[in-house]
Amino acid sequence: MQINRFFTAQGKDPLSSFEFSKRTSEIKNPDGSSVFRMENVSVPNQWSQVATDIIAQKYFRKAGIPKLLKKVNEKGIPKWLQPSVADVERLQELPENDRFTSETDAKQVFHRLAGTWTYWGWKANYFDSEEDAKCFYDELMFMFANQMAAPNSPQWFNTGLNWAYGITGPSQGHFFVDYQTGDLTKSDDAYTHPQPHACFIQSVSDDLVNEGGIMDLWVREARLFKYGSGTGSNFSELRGSHESLSGGGKSSGLMSFLKIGDRSAGAIKSGGTTRRAAKMVTLDLDHPDIEEYINWKVIEEQKVAAIVAGSKLCNLHLNNIMKACYDEHPENDRFNKKLNKKLSYAVLEARKAQISNNYIERVIHLAKLGFKSIEFPIYDTDWNSEAYATVSGQNSNNSVRVTNEFMTAVINDGNWNLYWRIEKRKAKKEKRNPKACNTLKARDLWEQISYSAWSCADPGIQFHTTINEWHTCPAGGEIKASNPCSEYMFLDDTACNLASLNLVKFYDTEKHQFNINAYKHATKIWTMVLEISVLMAQFPSKEIAQLSYEYRTLGLGYANLGTLLMLQGIPYDSREGFAICGALTSIMHMTSYATSAELAKQAGPFPRYEENKFNMLRVLRNHRRAAYNVPNEEYEGLTIYPVGINPQYCPSDLLKAAREAADNAVELGELYGFRNAQVTVIAPTGTIGLVMDCDTTGVEPDFALVKFKKLAGGGYFKIINQSIPPALEKLGYNKDQISEIIRYAKGSGSFDGCPYINPQSLKAKGFTDEIIAKIDKSLPSVFDITFAFNKFSLGTDFLTKILGFDTDEIDSYDFDVLSKLGFSKTEISSANDYVCGTMTVEGAPFLKHDHYSIFDCANKCGKKGTRFIRAAAHIKMMAAAQPFISGAISKTINLPGNASVEDVKDAYMQSWKLGIKANALYRDGSKLSQPLNTMSDEDIEAIMEDKDKNDIVKVAEKIIHRYIAKRRRLPDRRSGYTQKAKINGQSVYIRTGEYDNGQLGEIFIDMHREGASFRSLINCFAISISLGLQHGVPLEEFTDAFVFTRFEPSGIVTGNDKIKMATSVIDYIFRELAVTYLGRNDLSHVDTDEITSKASRGIVKKLSEPEFESEEIISERLVELDKDNPEKYSFAPGTKVTATKERTYATNNSITTKVKQAIENGYTGDICPECQSITMVRNGTCLKCMTCGSTTGCS
To answer: Residues with Cβ < 8 Å from 354, sequence gap 6 or more?
Structure first.
């Protein structure tokens, strides 16, 4: 094939226009420890530090690179293209430990990739001349250095290690098909034929141990994960739970095997260091175990919640029990639960929290042995924590296959049948309809799917009918599954290698024009790259090697669409944006198919083309019809119609190019066929997106307007999204206005001119010039102004000796220097907006409200941001691209935390109606590992203020109960209640009198006949208690003193719902009063949940302090209330109640604070499994780390 030069000149170094510089690449954990460090990394000057870190950490070969190389003379290969091997003789002259090194120069990586592709393309006669091959190589080198395109990660990991360095290794059980003979061959070594494919779909048969079966799949998956690839499988062939086995037993069911596979995947990290295994599990909706599968992750998340909460409760209560043992005087029987009232109370509280009695007794026994505290492990909801490692289902994306038949049943409220797998196979063999093993309401199953997605973001939906109506090769069978990120959808046991073009690199910000010719040229070059990759690759199984050779599927896509639209001043959620997306996708897709047709002319169509020719051309014609936006009736073989390019909103040059590319592809295909069954997907472009310095991935919008740019010398610097200034300029704003808008968003980064908090006000508080300068220097890199004022930046000596803070105070996790210095929240907020910016353009000076939508992101921006892109816009953007993609689109539909299950249903339904092939939803906060952050500190404070105003309960950290030696008069007409009961047959009447606020003020006790001595004594006792209550003695003091007193009558109590036994009349009276007025349910014998109390007033009464002329404090006692649950506050006899916290409370709150700040900065709040940074962002259906580039996907 003839290759033209577009970016380079003949005879000139393709990298001559780039300056390279050496940098240090370092990635650190949040605690400051180093994850990775490499010095003297050579990269192009315009590359960011993040891109430098990615290529250095992820893509440089770290070992085994010979320092001295020599060319291998291979017949027919141009000298400049000949492979290299270690020069063993010259290496012998070097010290043994100095013979091998690592890659340190980006040019080395560019060369081994571009050179390897050119080498294999030359061997397969893909170039008309040596100049075409050299042109191909040079154009690739230029595009690499200019960040215009990048292949998927396995290419960077594996491609060229043998060609460029002669690296080899033992075979890993791979296979390839010889491109010359067509023979299936087992690989002799690991690197001669690299594994460049990122995406695999593997079949699994209903067999336990044989080849192609369940256990064999885990081995095949491991082989892929090791080399950085991802895989997906449809498990619908596996028998359901309790389905009959050939030996007469019953199947353990699908889920038992899915859990094994999940464990297997969780134990493997690609390449040992690259990332977690990427895996997709798919199931048909008619499988007998479908309900269990749908709810799998919901239940597993509940287990995590239980483990986390249970561990915290165990730690809290068991340590309280241990403490209660030692709070008692050593001369008393401190370990006796009956005699030690503090221990009794602690044990009762533990039992209320369902703490195992075994653990309670164990702790008491340990206390007897002299232990003063215990360390009960506390688990958290971090995705990498032991809690998540304990449960299953966390190492895969889950999807269900939904047919049009099911969707119609949902709409019509019809039934849905489930079938045993054996019965379904028999019915197919006998050509009859299978008999259902169970019938469900379709809407009930739809409800379960939607609720599960709402709860934990899984399962996603793959629309089976739509996928197969666009299937180019139905003669080979149905498409049943996808790769982990859902963009590659083809036959089982096939593979796809991906590459993405950086759209922004084809847009001229000065001319405001998209370079269509350059875009088409790059598409042609990279289609050839992917085709050559199929030719040179090895595969993990015979079946994949054979079918990949026969179908040759490719996955070309693009990145940075969201940024491109913003640069042009076009809102993501707009008809213009959707039309541009459709046109750009069509140009790439149809140009790629045209290139495939040209390759077919030269090398022949893919081997299975003829049997699929009719359907392939039908699909291509449908692609063309979408480019022309024809009426629905003109489409062939479709039941769900696509969204075509709307000519009313599409730029004329893009529309014309899209239609021309469509016509050309169909015309060439009809003449020569196609070299490839599929050519395009929209991949997540996670790690490779960072290498290209893309602000957005795939068809995603941006996640935040203000980001932190990593500096070469370490640390971060706050930058505005690079597309905002040119976008504002295009909208007509002048330089001064643009400067003010940017300053509003990202702040001034300095105290100069700052309101309230500035050098003058700080000096007045005792700050020195040196400290102020030190703080000012750190301001450009902080997210919030309070971060610059901490013990690390100011120093402990300065805080304690100059500002006068206590050491304990400054060590507190919530210590706020500025607040302690007297600055109000309003003042701090104003200063923060000035210095650190608002992280949003909402409310920016000069910016017109009509232009806000141009800068909308997937999430709310900053603390003040209220706007975000609605879910419908995400779906419409996918629908605009889908008609021009061979595969599908890896994208997450973002929903706010307050979205309902109905919103999930609607998103799925709209996706189906608009012809999208697959959809994954993510509701903010739906995962425990990403805490919901819909309530700000201000919201919480507002709620607490409302409670303070409530006349029923007042929440405070400290309440001083004062015993006042002055009688408080009861109202003349007072409320209360009368309780009748019998103690061992003796009738007792209790009558209470209350103050207006419900506080107990007097009691009357009546029993025996008139004139009896006991009755008179009891009456006098009641009067004395009443006087005590009216003089302010708390009821709990009387209760502590008189319960458990023992004299006759005693025994069984009848007539009282809660108290069933009393040791005396006095014991009964104070049990009744304590239960009713103090909520002391530990003194009752029947749980509150088991009865409906008629008399209980609850315990949360506002005890109004009456106004006295004078008062004398006789004694006082400090009580610290539980702020989290004030309405259930109860007080133990004689105990100082403290808000006991588990020892990790401060740590947990610190983490929660960091997560909240990360979410406000546009991140998801998840913690990176590689570097532990909280800088994860949505990346298609996966996540990627903006610090180290790790992804949870397969690209």
So the answer is: 313
Distance between CA atoms of residues 318 and 306, nearest Å: 17
Closest by CA position to 620, among listed 277, 398, 886, 244: 886
Q: Which candidate, 529, 478, 557, places its Cα nearest to that of 891?
A: 557
- How far apart (Å, rounded) are the C-alpha atoms in residues 965 and 1164? 59
The single residue listed with the structure tokens 């799949």 is 217
- Judge contact between 453 and 162, C-beta under 8 A: no
Q: CA-CA distance, 655 to 879, in Å (whole number)?
A: 17
Identify which of 400, 391, 401 has the alpha carbon closest to the alpha carbon of residue 262.
391
- From residue 330, how far is each of 360, 373, 683, 1138 by CA, in Å? 20, 17, 69, 22
Question: What is d(CA 853, CA 851) in angstroms, rounded to the nearest whole number?
Answer: 6
Q: How many helices (H) and strands (E) does the chain have?
A: 40, 35
pLDDT confidence of residue 1080: 85
> Please, what's the largest Cα pairwise distance for the chain?
128
State pTM to two decimals: 0.77
Q: Give start and end residues of each alpha helix (H) in 371-420.
A: 386-390, 404-411
Can you say whether the dihedral through the CA atoms of 893, 894, 899, 901 is positive or negative? Answer: positive
Q: Nearest 5°: phi and psi at 869?
A: -75, 130
Handedness of CA 668, 669, 673, 677 (dihedral sign): positive
Q: What is the dihedral of CA 542, 547, 552, 556, to 10 degrees?
A: -80
Of the candidate ranges 234-248, 479-493, 996-1010, the one whose mean pLDDT is the lowest: 996-1010
Cα–Cα distance, 1010 to 822 (Å, whole number): 68
Residues 6+ apart with CB under 8 A from 881: 581, 582, 585, 682, 699, 889
B/e letters for 475-486, b = 16+ CB within 10 Å, e = fewer, are ebeebbbbbbbb
Question: Which among 172, 181, 223, 169 has a CA at the least distance from the CA of 200?
Answer: 223
Task: Give the mean pLDDT of 380-389.
Answer: 81
Q: Whole-angstrom Cα distance, residue 607 to residue 410?
A: 41
Does residue 777 have a pLDDT over 60?
A: yes
Whose CA is closest to 435, among 422, 423, 453, 421? Answer: 423
Tokens of 598: 């040209």
At residue 996, the 3 state secondary structure works out as coil
The partner residues of 893 in beta bridges, in order of sequence, read 921
Tokens (6 digits) for 183: 């023979």
DSSP 40: E
List, for residues 721-747, the tens digit of each pLDDT value: 778 899 999 999 999 999 999 989 888
| Distance separating alpha carbons of residues 957 and 975, to the nearest angstrom | 31
pLDDT confidence of residue 956: 40
Q: How many degrees, rounded to 5, is the angle at CA 845 between CA 844 and CA 847?
A: 70
Task: Say whether 23 sits in a helix, a strand or coil.
Answer: strand
Place of tokens 């300065």: 798
Instruction: Evaluate if residue 553 carries a pLDDT over 80.
Output: yes
Contact present, 202 and 217 (Cβ < 8 Å): yes
CA distance 640 to 588: 23
The two three-digit tokens of residue 205, written as one number: 């048969």
Instruction: Identify the burial level of 326 via C-beta atoms within 10 angstroms of its C-beta, where 0-12 means exposed, 13-18 middle and 19 or more buried.
Output: middle
Contact 868, 860 (CB under 8 A): yes
How far apart are the C-alpha atoms of 66 and 80, rounded to whole Å? 19
Q: Residue 1191: beta bridge partners? A: 1184
Spatial distance between the Cα atoms of 550 and 599, rounded to a whole number of angstroms: 15
Q: Check if the beta carbon of residue 957 is closer than 8 Å to that of residue 1108.
A: no
* Positions marked catalytic: 483, 485, 487
Distance CA 643, CA 579 (A): 10
Split at pLDDT 50, 70, 90, the class of 798 is confident
Give pLDDT tens digits for 488-502: 999 999 999 999 999
pLDDT in the model for residue 1090: 62
In this structure, the chain runs to a length of: 1195
